[in-house]
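Design request, tokens follow.
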């Protein structure tokens, strides 16, 4: 399934398919945030993006209309999985709730588990108590206001990459590409 750029939509009896590190977006509202997170995952070498809820869907019909060059561009290394109980699909991981909570660890002090699954809340809410109860660690980015969802993901991934010294590339290996909106590459639509 990896590398096809198609979403994997799985049922509850499907065998565990989670790989680490991974990112879970709970009930995201805006397609552009999900698309940006897929782009971030590709940048940092993260193989999976999971999301819950049905407010954002993959728009594969639109994708088929794109020129071949656009269809082939980037992101094919990221598996996109829409599933409502994502944490059940992992074994031996540390689910990290990224959320402003009273006892959250500050990002600058945080030691990232290698087998982390980072869980984020929706743009118009926060991580549900049910999902929070499944998380082992709690992490806050201590800034003055709530960050945009994709910006919060970017901040955590950069901090992880620098602290663990993984996922960074040499300047000679950078692949520059212009900004592409997710709907332009046919990945996601708001429902
Ligand atoms: C735009 S925020 C949600 C709105 C926020 N709950 C509020 O009341 O304004 C979307 C998600 O991004 C993450 N997030 C944003 N800013 C954050 C911060 N400073 N620290 C930790 N997580 C943050 C959280 O996962 C949050 O649920």
């Amino acid at each position: 399934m990896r590398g096809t750029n198609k979403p994997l939509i799985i049922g509850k009896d499907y065998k565990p398919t989670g790989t680490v590190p991974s990112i879970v977006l709970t009930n995201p509202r805006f397609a552009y945030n999900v698309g940006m997170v897929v782009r971030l995952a590709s940048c940092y070498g993260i193989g999976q993006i999971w999301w819950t809820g049905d407010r954002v869907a993959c728009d594969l019909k639109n994708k088929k209309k794109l020129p071949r060059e656009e269809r082939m561009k980037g992101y094919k290394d990221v598996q996109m999985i829409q599933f409502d109980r994502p944490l059940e699909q992992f074994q031996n991981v540390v689910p990290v709730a990224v959320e402003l909570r009273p006892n959250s660890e500050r990002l600058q002090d945080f030691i990232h588990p290698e087998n982390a699954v980072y869980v984020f809340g929706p743009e118009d809410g926060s991580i549900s108590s049910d999902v929070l109860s499944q998380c082992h660690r709690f992490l806050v980015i201590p800034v003055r206001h709530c960050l945009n969802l994709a910006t919060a993901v970017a901040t955590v991934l950069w901090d992880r990459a620098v602290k663990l010294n993984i996922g960074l590339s040499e300047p000679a290996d950078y692949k520059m590409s212009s900004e592409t909106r997710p709907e332009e590459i046919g990945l996601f639509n708001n429902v």
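Comment from the thread starter after seeing the answer: thanks! Residues 149-164 form the longest helix (16 residues).
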